[in-house]
Amino acid sequence: MIIDLVMIGLGLVALTVGADYLVRAVVTVADRLNVSTLLVSLTVVALGTSLPEFFVVVGSLFKDAPGIGMGNIVGSNIANLLLVLGVAAVIRPIATSHAMLRRDGLAMLAGTLVFVAGSSTGVIGPATGLVFVGLLVAYFAHCFFKDGGVDADGIEDVLPMSNAVLALTLLAALAALLIGSELLVNGALSLARSLGVSETAIGLTLVAVGTSLPELATTLAAARRRQFDVIVGNVLGSNLFNLLGVVGVASLIAPIAVPVEILELDLWLMALASLTALVLLRTGWTLDRREATAMLAVYGVYVVFQFAPMTMF
């Protein structure tokens, strides 16, 4: 079990560091090519925070472990809504934007419902995946043309290095993601067998929280700076990208099976968490500490429920 936890820990570190450097390297390329900052934010940064989930899902396909892959996606979205938002709001109540909730909040909720519908057959195939990706691209295009482009001068986190070193950094970041996903999936599978619990439970909790660490780190930094739009936008955008982008692209590689336990319960809990979070953000246009504490308590119960035998309830 200790070896399994070490593998999981190393995998999470490799995924987090690899995603961070890949995003910064691609942003640097965009800066040198004078690509719009907004376009980079809507695509590269959104992709970057979902890279750990993507590589875990793809890794689970080759390991025939759909519980790890789909559990990771659904569990990560639940963690983003209840854990990440909850922790941030406990630190500092989050003031929300009417415009953001009206557009991005409703887009996230609509994407969640589309994902639930697409998963209802028990298998997400290439045709459904193409629909997911098409909807995500349409949303990005709408955001880009609605907000308009801006100059690339405002892009942050560029890497001060030569083109040759930048290319090597891109390759090293991709390698870290591949190795990290391999370690994480293998460690999670072994841990599930050691504990005698389902792969899905591990995917919904331990793996999901681990791959949500980039969102949590970004959110905590934004909370300290009172950048509330960054907090909410990060969670909403990450959830939408996880469902439509990650699963959509992964399903083009191979059909993704949806475990029965996720179909029967966790998909609906994710949809309920999405709706509840939006309602709480809308109420008074602030997510206060009392509401955040309740969200964290609910998430704690959810995690315990995943590992507790049904006979206990």
Structure description:
- This protein is mostly helical.
- It contains 11 helices and 4 strands, in the order αααβαβαααααβαβα.
- The chain has helices at residues 2-32, 37-62, 66-91, 98-119, 126-147, 163-195, 199-211, 213-224, 228-253, 260-282, 289-307, and strands at residues 94-95, 123-124, 256-257, 286-287.
- α3 packs parallel to α8, α3 (66-91) packs parallel to α10 and α5 packs antiparallel against α9 (228-253).
Sum this structure up briefly.
The protein has 313 residues and is mainly alpha-helical. The protein has one domain (37-154, 197-312): Up-down Bundle (A middle domain of Talin 1).
Q: Low-confidence parts, pLDDT < 50 over ≥5 residues?
A: 149-155
**CATH homologous superfamily - what is it?**
NCX, central ion-binding region
Mean pLDDT: 82
Give, in order, the helices and strands. HHHEHEHHHHHEHEH
Strand order of the largest sheet: 1-4
Main pleated sheet: 2 strands, antiparallel
The overall strand count is 4
- Please count the helical segments: 11
Q: Identify the CATH class.
A: Mainly Alpha
Task: Report the structural category.
Answer: mainly alpha
* Beta-strand residue fraction: under 5%
